[in-house]
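quick one before i forget lol
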Amino acid sequence: MSHEYQVIFATAVFLITYGIIVSEKIHRAVAAFCGAAVVIIAGIVDAEKAVEYVDFNTIGLLIGMMIIVGISRQTGVFEYLAIKAAKQSGGEPVRIMAALGLITAVLSALLDNVTTVLLIVPVTFAIARQLKVNVIPFLIVEILASNIGGTATLIGDPPNIMIGSATKLGFMDFVLNLTPVVVVIYVTTIFILKLIYRKQIIASRESMQKIMSMDENAEIKDQALLKKCITVLVLTVTGFALHQFVHLESSVIALSGAALLLLLTRMDPEHAFHAVEWPVIFFFIGLFVIVGALEEVGVIEAIAHYALQVTGGALLPAGMLILWLSAIASAFVDNIPFVATMIPLIQDMGRLGGIQDLNFLWWSLSLGACLGGNGTIIGASANVVVIGMAEKRGSPISFMGFFKIAFPLMLLSVAISMLYLFMWYVLHTTIAMLITLAFGIVLSLVLGRISKRSGAKDENKTTAGV
């Protein structure tokens, strides 16, 4: 097969696979795995090269965290937190909604947003039944909070895991650069949602009293297991915070934490490994190979050339373009395959444009992809999970019902991100200029002194000669 036909073939496989994923006619893991098989069988990439394109750091991190969370969920600690928050809110629906949103955001930052909503949503239904109010406002808040909270850290959302693994950016890099704007976005979003829903979820005093009589301590099923899980989780998160300093990959930290927890709990590995969402893992593997095929034939590099022409190779316009493109695209298609495509594209833009520091573009991609997932009910995995759970319990959320609330809030969050990124860029550019200027002044003074000393020595030599 000639190179031209390889380009056409690889692009066609990518687009067809993407279309199947969006249509949801076939499970996305099957679609991605079949696409990967096709490009290997067709000879676009050989088997050895295909393995090289798989990011095993991302895979290891996901598996490790899934095992830790899977064991931890057996303790009942997440149900405990939800009921405790509801009681701390005095049983008032709007305050409970905000409290559950906060717990969802924090847990999504420390665990991952899909796991968090799987744990929080069942408790939310129980609380809404006790209050005798519509559960849908609570679910919408939790969907938005999960994606916003997941944006804050390396492990909170799959796009961040992929970006961190590809760029060697650490846990603290994400926390320091993204958490400030995430906090602003979260507070703004919850404030607006409270205004929207405050007259829609009103409960009687009797219903509120039922919430106050719930026993959160009864949800803790195994105190000894809980202590072990909290210990390992704290050690793992600490490891993430320090992994750049101890020179260990984030996947090594996560898998080590999972191994330690398995050792401490003496749990049957076969039972513990059921917590791993293997379809998600194989979806990632297939996706990495398909995008690798695009890299292999030069499609990604060609798009990077075009992007550089559009932005003139300037960092600020490129970052704004990536932010908005990622947000709008991620609202209507799954953000995971989109980010998988964008990562090599940004790397090629840096290489071709001679850009040494690409961090501004990585933060633009992270904010756009993670927050853009809030735009529609199909924008992120957490959204789809919550919608499915709501349908099973007889509380379906329509596409347009979600869209008219979430999409404007998503645009607002991206606008806040744009302002933040602009300030981030100006600040870092100014600091860099000041450092360069200071270095230049110091260098000039040093060279000036050396020159004076050299001139004085020459004068002395001349005087001595006379």
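fyi The CA atoms of residues 35 and 346 lie 23 Å apart.
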